[in-house]
Amino acid sequence: MIDWVVAEDIPGNFTFDSYFTNAPVMNHIQHHDRGYIGDLKFNRVIIVKGQEQTVSAWVQTLRPWCRTKFTVGERTQWYYTTTVRIPKVNHLVRLLVLWSSADAAEPRKVLVTNRVHWEAHHILKVYRRRWTGTEPYHRDGKHHLGMGDCQLRDGLGQTRHMHLVMLVYSALMRQVKHDRALDLGSDTPDDHRRVLSRHRSRNPAKDARLGRRTGPAWDESARNSASACLGVDSYRNLQNFSYTKNDVNIE
After folding, report:
1. DSSP string, 186-245
2. What sign has the CA pseudo-torsion 117, 119, 120, 123?
3. Are 111 and 37 contacting, i.e. CB atoms less than 8 angstroms apart?
């Protein structure tokens, strides 16, 4: 995927979870002179002042007075940032340690980036983009659009199933005219309620209190949105895909 993004000259930086924060991936992105930000596990070994130690052991050496307070919107956090080395990673990296309070015993997250000149606010700004596109897509695709319900064995059929999920999700995003799951600036009350229903929490009581639609109500909203975006005929064609255990036949 990294090579494809570079070949297509798609701008931007890579963001990922701790599973992909490993030396081969980090070195490959650095080789292409692209930026990345990833979660770093607390048991990863780092090199600080020539000594190897785990992230968790190093964090314990940071005193509260080392932390810097900063606020984004209504959220306040404390951070510490420095540059270190990681074994088998062929370039210098910057760590950003985040705490929920000034005296918290454990950090809530540790981020790593190859852009050692970036300051903390910029690192967080770039990292948050992961939660305005990729993660909401996977959440909504799995919970509402059947991404995880594919029972096809054939690779081509599975690919077509994913294409359908992407198509419907794109139609919904076009309908709300925003690239995020929650857009409170919708034009009509019905649009507002529809978008809120897509951003529902897993707390039924909270959903009821906020007037969010769930279950069949969300499904009806999704059908109406997809139909409006694709056109009635096109949307009906999407419903005419016939599935078998081994493949998906497009009629």
Report:
1. -SSHHHHHHHHHHT--S-HHHHHHHT---THHHHHHHHHHHHHHH-HHHHHHHTTPEE-S
2. negative
3. yes
Six token digits for residue 145: 């659009």
pLDDT tens-digit series, residues 49-100: 899 999 999 999 998 889 999 887 788 999 999 999 999 999 999 999 999 9
Q: Collapsing DSSP states into helix, strand and coil, what is residue 54?
A: strand
- Could you report the per-residue pLDDT of 214-251, keeping only the tens digit for each? 555 545 554 454 444 444 444 444 444 433 333 333 32
Helices 155-176 and 216-230 cross at an angle (nearest 10°) of 90
Q: How far apart are CA 120 and CA 116, in angstroms?
A: 10
**Can you give 119-167 as a three-state secondary structure string?**
CHHHHHHHHHHHHHCHHHHHHHHHHCCCHHHCCCCCHHHHHHHHHHHHH
| pTM metric for this prediction | 0.62
